[in-house]
Design a protein that fits this description.
The protein is an alpha/beta fold. It has 2 domains: about 5-80, GMP Synthetase, Chain A, domain 3, CATH 3.30.300; about 90-350, Rossmann fold, CATH 3.40.50. It has helices spanning about 5-15, 55-65, 110-125, 140-145, 170-175, 180-195, 215-225, 240-255, 285-290, 305-315, 325-350, and strands at about 15-20, 25, 30-35, 40-45, 75-80, 95-105, 130, 150, 160, 160-165, 165-170, 205-210, 230-235, 260-270, 275-280, 295-305. A hairpin with a 5-residue loop joins strand 8 (about 150) and strand 9. The chain binds adenosine-5'-diphosphate. Adenosine-5'-diphosphate (ADP) binds near residues 139, 266, 304 and 307.
């Protein structure tokens, strides 16, 4: 091929399809920029991809590399997404995706899901932070066996401890152990302010926030304070948990927070002794809810004593071989893919070819 020019590169990119949005990158407005440096013989392409290490976006990047013929020029492929906000106004500007994990009520495995989502994304290669904002039961440090507490620099910046490759902050670190829960609500706003002003998170692809259960002040404070890119709703198959999940959905809806989908935890139990399957809390409720409210269904996590054991031992099960680990890994991939779809879809809607 001859020396590449912008037009030829653009035309070649028309053969790369976005499998979810069903059109090519150029038509979808997913091509941010092409820059050609003829001295260095480099073609720099910036694509509007926003969910690093998600299977779909990884595949799109790989296909882009495959199809391009650049006449011996080197390809410098990057990705960036316009979050629709002025960079100067941006809270946590170095955090690409803030994903909130929510549930209508406690005890459905919300923290377990948050921890495994964070650990799973980290295992895919992403830079991940995990923020345990559950003021009523900040148990994430135990679940990932964080024995270290945050440290502070001379400039009074807080350095979060790292565990399983994730940076961790927890209300547990910030609130005194003996603070009565009644004081915690009003303190949350201050703590959240510290979270983005004083904590050195560095550059993160994802920050996973474990919200307190329910739809109270903390959740609202958080939604008003940080740009949440997506929310995951955790439910069990039980009716009452499903009702609570609906309330959570309404809360996110009122704040225009994209809900990535619903994950059902504590689904069937595969009995290792008798070999059969027992739907202890009922069956299929999460999928039904997802259908009713027309949201994606992100996965089914079985009841498995190893999950509780993993939580107690500080080793997230998503990092282990086996069926339950597979279920979590599938959920992690689905969630990352949905976050990518949300970003690419809003980028498409900003396209001059696709006015809203
Ligand atoms: P929440 O954050 O919703 O209050 P947790 O994640 O703290 O719930 O989970 C409550 C308890 O249930 C923990 O002991 C956890 O290890 C256990 N647990 C959560 N999900 C499962 C599961 N799928 N199978 C077995 N135990 C689970």
């Amino acid at each position: 091929m001859d020396t590449p020019d912008e037009h030829s590169v653009r035309e070649q990119l028309r053969s790369v399809e976005d499998p979810d949005l069903g059109d090519d990158l150029v038509s979808l407005n997913l091509l941010n920029e092409i820059e050609i440096d003829h001295d260095q013989e480099v073609v720099a392409i910036d694509l509007a991809l926003g969910a690093p290490f998600s299977p779909t976006e990884t595949a799109i990047a790989a296909e882009t590399r495959d199809v391009l013929e650049l006449g011996g020029y080197e390809l410098d492929l990057s990705a960036s997404i316009d979050r629709g906000l002025d960079p100067d106004d941006l809270i946590l500007p170095n955090v690409q995706n803030i994903i909130a994990v929510a549930s209508g009520k406690g005890g459905v495995g919300k923290s377990t899901v948050a921890v495994n989502l964070a650990a799973g994304l980290s295992d895919l290669g992403a830079r991940v932070g995990l923020f345990d904002a559950d003021i009523y039961g900040p148990n994430v440090p135990r679940m990932i066996d964080a024995d270290e507490r945050p440290s502070a620099t001379a400039e009074e910046e807080i350095i979060p401890p790292e565990e399983h490759g994730m940076k961790l902050m927890s209300m547990d670190f910030m609130l005194g152990e003996d603070d009565p829960v009644i004081f915690r609500g009003p303190m949350v706003h201050n703590v959240l302010t510290q979270l983005w002003e004083d904590v050195d998170w560095g550059y993160l692809d994802y920050m996973i926030i474990d919200l307190p259960p329910g739809t109270g002040d903390t959740q609202l404070s958080l939604l008003q304070s940080v740009p949440v890119a997506g929310a995951v709703i955790v439910t069990t198959p039980q009716d009452v948990a499903l009702d609570d999940a609906r309330k959570g959905l309404k809360m996110f809806g009122e704040h225009d927070t994209p809900v990535l989908g619903i994950v059902e935890n504590m689904s069937t139990f595969h009995c290792p002794d008798c070999g059969s399957t027992h739907p202890i809390f009922g069956e299929g409720g999460g999928r039904q809810l997802a259908e009713d409210v027309e949201l994606p269904y992100l996965g089914t996590i079985p009841i498995d004593p190893a999950i509780r054991q993993g939580g107690d031992d500080g080793k997230p099960i998503v990092l282990e071989d086996g069926e339950t680990g597979d279920a979590f890994r599938e959920f992690v991939r689905e969630t990352a893919d949905m976050q990518g779809i949300v970003h690419r879809n809003s980028q498409r809607q900003r396209s001059p070819e696709n006015p809203l």
